[in-house]
Structures are given as structure tokens and as C-alpha cells.
Amino acid sequence: MPQWSRIRALVMTTSTASEVYAEILRSRTLQEDLVRAFHLERLYGRRGMERTLKELSRHVKVSIGQSGLIVVHVEDREPRRAADMANRLVDGLDRFNRETFNTRAKRTREFLEKRVTDAQVRLRESEAALTAYERSKGAVAADAAVAGMASMIAQKLSLQVKREYVTSYTSETSAAVRSIDAEIAAYDRELARLPGLRTEGARLALDAEIQRRVFTMLTSQY
Questions:
Q1: Percent of the chain predicted with pLDDT > 70
Q2: What does residue 7 show for φ and ψ, rounded to 5 degrees?
Q3: DSSP letter string over 109-172?
Q4: Interval 119-152: pLDDT, tens
Q5: Residue 67 and residue 87: Cα distance in Å, rounded?
Q6: Whole-angstrom Cα distance, residue 131 to residue 198?
Q7: What one-character-per-residue DSSP string does 6-41 give?
Q8: pLDDT at residue 41 is higher than 70
């Protein structure tokens, strides 16, 4: 009777991603792909996907080492087939990552495209309001505090846009969202310490400067 050959494939990754990648390698999608690609139902002498997957689980193991290294163990009576199965699993993980990246990239472009369009509209409106005010007063609206306040508020608005995007694919309680919320709260505390603007002209100048900075940031990200 032929002996089982054991093949081990190593996947280099970071410790934070190891659990996610290991679960993908163990996923039913990739396991069923192995069954179909290598005709394992016939090879294992099992009828039906469920029984074949159960048998496959005895011959394919995915583990994580202390350094975060993912190890894929595959055993089969033919060494070449064992190696091919291990390689197909790793290729499946790579394919999943590329498809996920492309989907995320497309969503990011679409999200930023809409935000850039909205920001452009707001910028035009704020500049038109400022220009009308300055013409009516015959003077340039300026305030020494405008530039500093505009920078901080624009950074805060940029974080809010980032938060909106992040929550489109993760939960409100995720670590990424909590980190963004902490940054927004820090800007709120700083802004609360600043003195208020005294004139309508200064407020219009502030709004126009904020919209310019937000539009510039979003455009560069897009």
C-alpha cells in the first residue's frame, strides 16, 4: 500500500494578519476548490461534498507558528499531488488578496470621487459668498486667526471623511474607527480653546479657506 507523502508550504506574513490568512486557507471556498480541482471525491472514495471535505480535513492542516509564520501541511499518496494541492491553496490565498484589494481600491476611488465633487461645489459657493461680501464692503476680509483655524478644521473634516469610508466596511466599534474618533476628539479640544471670529467677513474667509484645504486634500487622495 502506498505511503502518505507530507508536503509543507510556508506563507510569510505579519502576526496581525496571520489569523485572517489562516482562516482564508481553511475556508470552505478554498477547500471545495481542492476537492473539485483534484477530483478528491473519487480519490478518497467518498460520496458527496460534505463527506469529502471531512476526509480532506484529515490530510490538510493549517497552523500558525510563534513568529506568525503560516504553515500548510498537505499529505497525499503522491508527493507531486500533495505539492500541487499545497500550491493551489497558497495561490487561492493570493487570488483572494488581489481580488479584495481591487474591490477595495475601486470602492475607494468611487467614494473619493463623490467627495471631491461635493467639495468642489462647496468651495465654489464659499468663494462666491466671500467675493460678494468683499465687493459689498470694498475691502478684503482677513483675520490673523483664519489660517490656523482653517488648517485644524480641515484636518478634522478630512478625518470625518476617512471615518465615513472606514465604517463602510467595518463596524463602529472597530479599532480603526476608535483611533479616528480619538483624533477627531483631540482636534475638537484644540478648537474649543481658540477665540471666536468677530466679523462676518472673517467667518466667510474661514469657510472659504477650509473648503480650499479640504478640496486640496481630497483631490490629492483621489
A1: 89
A2: -115, 140
A3: HHHHHHHHHHHHHHHHHHHHHHHHHHHHHTS----TTHHHHHHHHHHHHHHHHHHHHHTTTS-T
A4: 889 889 998 988 888 888 776 666 666 777 888 8
A5: 22
A6: 19
A7: EEEEEE---HHHHHHHHHHHHSHHHHHHHHHHTTHH
A8: yes
Query: Whole-angstrom Cα distance, residue 161 to residue 122?
Result: 15
The residue assigned the cell 464659499 is: 126
Cα separation, 207 vs 122, whole angstroms: 9
Residue 158 CA to residue 163 CA, distance in Å, equals 9
* Separation CA 134–CA 139 (nearest Å): 5
8 Å CB contact between 152 and 191: yes
| Residue 10 pLDDT exceeds 80 | no
Please tell me the distance from the alpha carbon of residue 190 to that of residue 186, in angstroms, as a whole number.
Answer: 6
Side chain identity at 108, as an amino acid letter? T
Q: Which three cell numbers stand for residue 16?
A: 496581525
Query: Using CA atoms, how far apart are residues 80 and 7, in angstroms rounded to an integer?
Result: 9
- The string over 49-65, giving b where at least 16 C-beta atoms fall within 10 Å of a residue's C-beta and e elsewhere, is beebbebbeebbebebe
Strands 70-76 and 5-11: antiparallel
The one-character DSSP state at 76 is: E
Burial of 205 (0-12, 13-18, 19+ CB in 10 A): buried
Strand ranges across the sheet with 70-76: 5-11, 70-76, 60-64
Residues facing residue 8 across a β-bridge: 73
* Chain centre distance of CA 170: 9
